[in-house]
Specification:
By secondary structure, the chain is an alpha/beta fold. 36% of the residues lie in helices and 18% in strands. The chain has 11 helices and 13 strands. Helix 5 links the parallel strand 7 and strand 8. Helix 8 runs parallel beside helix 9. The longest helix is centred in the first third of the chain and has 17 residues. The chain is flat, with a radius of gyration of 22 Å.
Length: 340
């Protein structure tokens, strides 16, 4: 039976029929398709080409994932001038600007692009609108790598806005020739408010055919919205530089439920659990399941004996690997495939 956001399905995962204290384990949670793809790209590159493999910025915004890949031989750098000429480098899931691609080409780097396909979609939209002569308004958080990459597609005509006040202060050459795009990991509510303000200020503004906020960001926020009212506390597993994880905390707090962002179980402060009977646990799109399970195990030691998984909607998205990886792992001509 298919469940809807308004009618979450609850599966009791505990051997105890009822316990005084409960954990509500949200689903979907954790890795999205873009993160799975990006992490797989690094692992396959290491297996196929051998270490070291250089990665520009963090492949995804999660300390555990980055540390684990570094142990396997990935070398994370801030900029391409830290990569030896001719070496192999992976672009992170957040995407890069054309200027970064140009530097990679000049230095003869062997590029593997792990940009999330949903981020690539926003880049394509930016190029299209710029070519059509629009002034571009990019709704998002400055300094975030995704926003820097998207803005880099048309820097002369793109302005970034992060608040409704900034929208109200916008000045463009032609108010009737404006288009907007959004960062994929925004809060649905903050994006809505700023888009409404843009439409009020520029009645003829145009935008993408489908919203830019990614399915995983939306689904995890929807899950929090559906469960927060029944929880005394929401714990979000994710790193501090993860935009979508921070948004989950904000969604819960905006609904009046205490919420904290934690990298790992050890970050939980015992006083947070005082007077708490129901804890909802979720994870940002770049947080691995192993960290979620450690949080559950910790909570069980604190008397939360019942663990109920709350599925708000199914999530079955998969993305293919980039051609650089597909070509590298393709069987040689004439090779016999095991099991064929």
């Amino acid at each position: 039976m298919t469940t809807t956001a308004s009618e979450p399905r609850v599966n009791n995962l505990s051997n105890q029929a009822e316990a005084a204290k409960r954990v509500l384990l949200l689903k979907p949670r954790g890795f999205c398709a873009g993160v799975v793809r990006a992490v797989d790209i690094v692992k396959i590159a290491l297996d196929t080409f051998g270490a070291p493999i250089y990665v520009r910025k963090e492949i995804v915004h999660n300390r555990y994932v980055v540390s684990d890949l570094a142990k396997k031989g990935a070398i994370f750098v801030n900029e391409l001038d830290e990569v030896p000429s001719g070496a192999r480098v992976i672009f992170s899931a957040h995407g890069v600007s054309p200027a970064v691609r140009a530097v990679a080409k000049e230095r003869g780097l062997k590029v593997i692009d792990a940009t999330c396909p949903l981020v690539t979609k926003v880049h394509v939209e930016a190029i299209k609108f710029a070519k059509q002569g629009y002034s571009l308004v990019l709704v998002g958080h400055r300094e975030h790598e995704e926003v820097e990459g998207t803005q880099g597609e048309a820097p002369e005509v793109t302005q970034v806005v992060s608040t409704v006040e900034e929208v109200n202060n916008l000045v463009v050459p032609d108010p009737d020739k404006v288009a907007y795009l959004t960062q994929t990991t925004l809060s649905l509510d903050e994006a809505r408010d700023m888009i409404e303000a843009l439409k009020k200020k520029f009645p003829n503004i145009v935008g993408p055919h489908a919203q830019d906020i990614c399915y995983a960001t939306e689904n995890r926020q929807t899950a929090v919205k559906n469960v927060a009212h029944g929880a005394d506390l929401v714990l979000v597993v994710g790193s501090k530089n993860s935009s979508n994880s921070n948004r989950l905390v904000e969604v819960s707090q905006n609904l009046g439920t205490n919420s904290y962002l934690i990298d790992k179980a050890e970050d939980i402060q015992p006083q947070w659990l005082n007077g708490v009977d129901n804890v909802a646990v979720t994870a940002g799109a770049s947080a691995p399941e192993v960290l979620v399970q450690e949080v559950i195990e910790y909570l069980q030691t604190k008397g939360f004996g019942s663990v109920d998984e709350v599925e708000v909607m199914p999530e079955n998205v998969r993305f293919g690997l980039p051609p650089e990886i597909v070509q590298a792992i393709k069987p040689a001509p004439g090779a016999v495939t095991v099991g064929a």
